[in-house]
Amino acid sequence: MRLVVHDLAHRFPGTDLLFEHLDMTVDPGMTVAVCGPSGCGKSTLLSILAGWEKPYAGSVERIGIARTGWVFQNPVGVAQRSALDHVVFPLLAKGFSREEAEPQALEAMGLFDLDHAAGRRFSELSGGEAQRLMLARAVCSRPDMLLVDEPTAQLDTRTAHSVSHVLGNLANQGMIVLVATHDPDTRDACDHVVDLAHYAPNG
Ligand SMILES: Nc1ncnc2c1ncn2[C@@H]1O[C@H](COP(=O)(O)OP(=O)(O)OP(=O)(O)O)[C@@H](O)[C@H]1O
Ligand SMILES: [Mg+2]
Description:
Elements: E1 2-10, E2 19-26, E3 31-35, H1 42-50, E4 57-63, E5 68-71, H2 83-93, H3 98-111, H4 127-140, E6 145-149, H5 157-172, E7 176-180, H6 184-188, E8 192-195
Parallel strand pairs: 3-7, 3-8, 5-6, 6-7
Antiparallel strand pairs: 1-2, 1-4
Helix pairs in contact: 2-3, 2-4, 3-4
The structure holds adenosine-5'-triphosphate and magnesium ion.
Protein name: ABC transporter
Keywords: ATP-binding, Nucleotide-binding, Transport
Pfam family, one: ABC_tran
């Protein structure tokens, strides 16, 4: 399994280039931080890597990567449903029974320190809990590649460190992990840094 990005450039119709000449290779076991100032194209790059956005130029090869997990920058949930339901639903959709899905969901929630929140409604979660719930849900589906957008934006330093640690462990277990972040601690916890500022036109 390998992610290979070659000479990538992107612009939206009618706008300037966000970045150009971006090359990178990501193997399982590595965590990669995608950094740069607000608006530089971090989220856009993740959507290109996921295959959702077609790049303006260059190529993305997802060699052996069958399943991509994505954690959005802003948590999205169903206000009245429980936190646990949010993690269980994708597993039910994959064909697991509720009895099979719940332990898996609770295990993933435990990784992100959400044991206490399983029975809470989504609307009752704090911003950081909701963000970690989205991580637990993505991890539960055991993706080959996990793309995480600003996972620690709403977390205190200790919780952010713990999330970085979990992402590092997932990489060590064979996942490709990319994290868009402007948090220096989260960036420093990654094995490799891609600073999009270096790929800005004239950057
Ligand atoms: N669909 C779109 N059409 C046109 N412009 C877009 C579109 N999506 C994003 N942009 C613009 O592209 C630029 C990069 O957006 P992006 O969301 O990738 O930035 P970012 O680095 O993730 O920023 P932040 O740190 O604030 O999350 C922004 O100027 C944004 O307004
Ligand atoms: Mg963004």
